[in-house]
Write a structure and sequence with these properties.
The protein is mainly beta. It is built from two helices and 25 strands. Bound molecules: copper (II) ion.
């Protein structure tokens, strides 16, 4: 896991470290910029209606200003650089300095005005996915509004009619602009802060990129064969842990902006789906799950009571989505003897390393030569050895005795004596099998 620690949250913290206000133009709200990829402190509302803020995994929430009863935000569409994990930085397009753009948090009934300034070299438009709004505010370039030309600022105005989890993304040269990383989350909190309340509320969106090892800009025409499967434009081991206090009610909200589905699996717990981008799921329609499929273009919120301490894996269950850049052209070598082969090939290719005869787990431990600016297919180290993961993988760390707003990485779980799987120390029977 990344060694970087999350911010220690302080009451009244409005903006995270690294934020810079750039736009002071008359009439326009400020457009804060975020340069860091760390998980930002929850944005406690300084004005407007009260709510319990979310934590954006490896992201942040956008400050606003109140003006004559309107909540005003300012998004700037622009090229950005994003570290996917230590060792790899991508050239993306995003909003306010990052991909994903900042999370927009509102309250049911809020009147919102969102300024969008286009600092790309081509036109754009922003669609507010899942939000019930007037047709002309829906953000489909050419259909419901003119595209926003390069260099121009457009204004969107609507009322947040219902609470829920939503997202924003371009609807203008959509294939390219999504492939380049433009997206962000929207959370509309219930009017009554006591309704649907949880103790810890996380949100992130899934995206996928195809970035050739040794390069930094995604291939924008790729249809299915992506090699970077991300949560908020981060891959394991760059994704922060989801830190939870034992006993907390936890909600994790996830949206899918990739071109395939993701079966999201949580270890150690069963949970229920309490919300989709269509609204709250009635209690009578909820059932227990340990994996929920996240369809393309959809959002889901899961909830559980964090009653079991530990480091619980949380990941997409498609095994190719918990890996980083890999060569699919590599032949399967399981069961193929490579004895003597390495010596012969090494004479021709000095860096050649035979692998896969007994599986590919050994790759998680090797220091393989890599091109600049890419990540190993299987990587990461835990307290017991290599984790052999990548992509859409993180850990829900449940600990007793944390402070209410403490999201700092507590390190690895210390297991109570005698509760870890261990080698059998007794007599071993002679087991005969065909080999
Ligand atoms: Cu997946």
């Amino acid at each position: 896991m990344t060694s970087r620690r999350n911010f220690l949250l302080s009451a009244g913290a409005i903006v995270g470290a690294g934020l810079v206000n750039r736009v002071q133009a008359a009439g326009l709200p400020e457009a804060p910029l975020q340069s860091a990829a760390a998980t930002g402190a929850p944005l406690l509302p300084p004005d407007g209606r009260p709510y319990q803020p979310v934590v954006t995994l490896n992201g942040w929430s956008l400050p606003w200003r109140m003006k004559n009863g309107w909540k005003e935000f300012h998004l700037i569409a622009e090229p950005v650089q994003r570290e996917l994990a230590p060792g790899m930085v991508a050239n993306f397009w995003g909003y306010n300095g990052q991909s994903p753009g900042p999370t927009i948090e509102c309250v049911e009934g809020d009147r919102v005005r969102i300024f969008v300034t286009n600092k790309l070299k081509e036109k754009t438009a922003v669609h507010w996915h899942g939000i019930l709004l007037p047709n002309g505010m829906d953000g489909v370039g050419g259909l419901t509004q003119p595209h926003i030309p390069a260099g121009k600022t457009f204004v969107y105005e609507f009322v947040m009619k219902k609470a829920g989890l939503f997202m924003y993304h371009p609807h203008s040269d959509e294939m390219v602009q999504l492939a380049m990383g433009m997206h962000g989350a929207i959370v509309v909190h219930p009017k009554d802060p006591a309704s649907h309340r949880v103790d810890r509320d996380f949100i992130f969106l899934t995206t996928a990129y195809d970035i050739d090892p040794g390069t930094a800009t995604p291939r924008v025409n790729t249809m299915t064969d992506f090699n970077m499967w991300t949560w908020n434009s981060r891959v394991f081991p760059g994704i922060d842990p989801l830190v939870v206090r034992k006993g907390d009610r936890v909600r994790i909200r996830v949206g899918n902006l990739t071109m395939t589905n993701h079966p999201m699996h949580l270890h150690g717990y069963d949970f229920t789906v309490t919300q989709t981008d269509g609204g709250w799921v009635p209690r009578s329609a909820q059932w227990p799950e340990t994996t929920v499929d996240l369809p393309i273009g959809a959002l889901r919120a899961i909830e559980f009571d964090a009653d079991a301490e530990g480091d619980w894996a949380f990941h997409c269950h498609k095994s190719h989505h918990t890996m980083n850049a890999m060569g699919h052209a590599v032949p399967t070598m399981v069961g193929v003897s490579q004895e003597g082969l390495a010596d012969k090939i090494t004479k021709l290719i000095p860096d050649y390393m035979p692998m896969g005869e007994h599986g590919m787990g050994e790759m998680g431990e090797m220091e393989m030569p890599l091109p600049d600016n890419t990540l190993p297919m299987m990587t990461g180290t835990g307290p017991f050895g290599p984790l052999e993961m990548g992509g859409m993988f993180s850990v829900v760390k449940v600990r007793a005795g944390l402070a209410r707003n403490d999201y700092r990485d507590p390190g690895w779980y210390t297991h109570p004596e005698g509760t870890v799987a261990h080698e059998w120390a007794g007599e071993l029977p002679d087991i005969h099998r065909k080999s």
